[in-house]
Every structure is written in C-alpha cells, then in structure tokens.
Write a structure and sequence with these properties.
Strand order of the largest sheet: 6-7-8-3-9-10-12-11
GO biological process, one term: peptide transport
GO molecular function: ATP binding; ATP hydrolysis activity
Radius of gyration: 20 Å
Membrane topology: Peripheral membrane protein
Protein name: ABC transporter ATP-binding protein
CATH class of the largest domain: Alpha Beta
Number of strands: 12
Shape: globular
CATH topology of the largest domain: Rossmann fold
CATH architecture of the largest domain: 3-Layer(aba) Sandwich
Strand content: 15-25%
Helix content: 25-40%
Distance between the termini: 38 Å
Family: Belongs to the ABC transporter superfamily.
Number of helices: 11
C-alpha cells in the first residue's frame, strides 16, 4: 500500500500574462521507506508539486485546481486548515531550498528545532531543547550541545542544511520532502548531506521525496525517478531502469549534459538547445517539441504517459524507438 498517492494534481497561478499551469495532471505513488527523486530544470514544476502536497500554495494568486493527495489513507486537499497544520512538520516535514531564508535569523537554531517538538508532541521546552541537541548530534554537527544556542548566521551553509534536516526529523515524520537540499553547497558537502538524508530516512523507515535539477546527484540515492518538464511528468520509473534505458528525449538530453566517469577522455557534453517553455503560453502538443531533435508532425498532439515496460512510463510518441544508450 502506498504511503502517498498523488492523482491528477494540477496547480495554477493567475498572473498579468494569464493563467500559468505550474503543475499539470501529475500522478505518482510513494511507499514507506522509498526515495523518489523529482528531476527537471528550473520552472518544470518540481517545487510547486511539493508545495501543493502540503497545501502551501499562496492563494491568491495560486490555487490547486484539480486532483487529490492521499497520505496514509486521507486526502490532504480535503482537510481543514487545523488538520493540515497538524500534519505539517509532524507527519510530513519539508526541507526548503535555501536554509538561510528558511531559518529565522532572530531565533537560536536550537529553539527552532525544539518548536515543533513542543507544538506537536506537547513536550516541555527544556526537554524539547535537550532533544534538539540530540538531533543536531544525530546529523553530525560538532559540539551539538553548545550549537543549540547559536544563531543561523553563525553556521556555515552545510551546517545550516544539517540544522534543517534535524528540524525535519524532530517529530519522526513518515515523509520528508527535500527541495534542492544541496543548492549552493560544494560537491563534498553535497555528498555528505545526501548520504545523511538517505541514512536517517532509512533508519526511521521514512519515505523521502528528493527534488533536484541534477540527475547525477540522485544516481546513488533514489529508488525511483519522476522527470518533469513544463509542469508535467514526462518519464517515470525505477532509477536503474531510467538511467540504463531512458525513453524520453528530455531525459536523454539531461543525461548527455552531465559528466560521466565512463565517457572517453576529451568527450564533449551535449547541451539541450533552447530554453524551458513559458508556462503561460505552452506550445500545443508536446511541450518539449521546440527543443527536441526528434520532433515530428505527430508531436503537435499531446503525448500521454504510457508504459514502455511494466514499471517504466514515458510521454513520448517515439518512446519505443528511442535508443537505450544515453546521448544517441
């Protein structure tokens, strides 16, 4: 049974340019203990999907226009405001993209980690602060007991991200959503943060949604991958299957633009030409067609997400003909 089941989710924003459909008919499932990576360029709809799950879309100008988000048997979109507040930070936690802007600069890090423990678990503040120190030690922050008294500006980027992970773990959530958790961190710290996330979620049997623009980052950590483009899922399946046999030109393009250890020395990366689509004025049919080398007349019709194999979905008219080799 799925812990999280997202069905036909659509989210739109009303702007001066018209209605922007940031998430368009998105569906996926997530089991307990599983890591799902949602991959795509900036503007593909990844973060809006995550915010929609927790009903954090500001209204106005945004609204969730269709679909359902069933978590542990209940539709989050039908809950009252009080009910969804009891879920956020408690049973579902989110690690936001930029920790410096997500942490309150006027409060100590320990107080911010202790707050959800006090709020959702009714734990006295003194005990909650002790728990905050334990959590900072769990995410391998040196001298955790004294660090609870520090302010966010006294932490480095990697330390702030560890504090955000500690905050997410505070109430032992069943689901953690990590939105670009390694943005602006150097490569070594990126690897440490991703390994830590995988470790702590595995230990707690928590599900993890990892949102990123980099397929290379998730190669070691994701069980399944959803590739988004223009607000839609264009490919989905087990990570190994997608890496070995990508069936959408956009996925193939993303992989061809990432350095690989098995490439010959001197090999050139192949960029995806063009720019992401304007969500307020999407082209008819396949949104990727203007940038796709394989585009044909049939691409003026919107391709449906169909099964290439029992576990592998692709929204491309030519999914069966695409090469199994990245970059070809």
């Amino acid at each position: 049974m799925s812990l999280l089941s997202v069905r036909n989710l659509s989210t739109e924003f009303r702007t001066e340019r018209g209605v922007v459909k940031a998430v368009d008919d998105v569906s996926f499932d997530l089991a307990a203990g599983e890591t799902l990576a949602i991959v795509g360029e900036s503007g593909s709809g990844k973060s809006v999907t995550a915010m929609s799950i927790l009903r954090l879309i500001p209204n106005p100008p945004g609204r969730i226009s269709a679909g359902e988000v069933v978590f542990d048997g209940r539709n989050l979109l039908e809950m009252s405001d009080a009910e969804i507040r009891a879920i956020r930070g408690n049973r579902i936690a989110m690690i936001f993209q930029e920790p410096m802007s997500s942490l309150n600069p006027s409060l100590t890090v320990g107080l911010q980690i202790a707050e959800p423990i006090n709020l959702h678990r009714r734990t006295p503040w003194a005990a909650a602060m002790d728990k905050a120190a334990e959590l900072l030690a769990r995410v391998r922050l040196p001298d955790a007991k004294s660090r609870v008294k520090a302010y966010p500006h006294q932490f480095s980027g990697g330390m702030r991200q560890r504090a955000m992970i500690a905050m997410a773990l505070a109430c032992q959530p069943q689901l953690i959503i990590a939105d670009e958790p390694t943005t602006a961190l150097d490569v070594t710290v990126q690897a440490q943060i991703l390994a830590l996330l995988k470790e702590v979620t595995r230990a707690a049997n928590s599900a993890l949604i990892l949102i990123t623009h980099d397929l290379g980052v998730v190669a070691r950590y994701a069980d399944r991958v959803c590739v988004m483009y223009g607000g839609r899922i264009v490919e989905a399946g087990p990570a190994r299957e997608i890496y070995a046999r990508p069936r959408h030109p956009y996925t193939i393009g993303l992989m061809a633009s990432v350095p690989r250890l098995d490439q010959e020395a001197g090999s050139r990366l192949v960029p995806i030409e063009g720019s992401p689509p304007n969500l307020a004025n999407l082209p008819p049919g396949c949104a990727f067609a203007p940038r796709c080398r394989r585009a044909a007349d049939i691409c003026r019709q919107r391709p449906m997400l169909v099964r290439s194999t029992p576990d592998h979905l692709s929204a491309c008219h030519f999914h069966a003909q695409l090469s199994a080799h990245v970059g070809t």
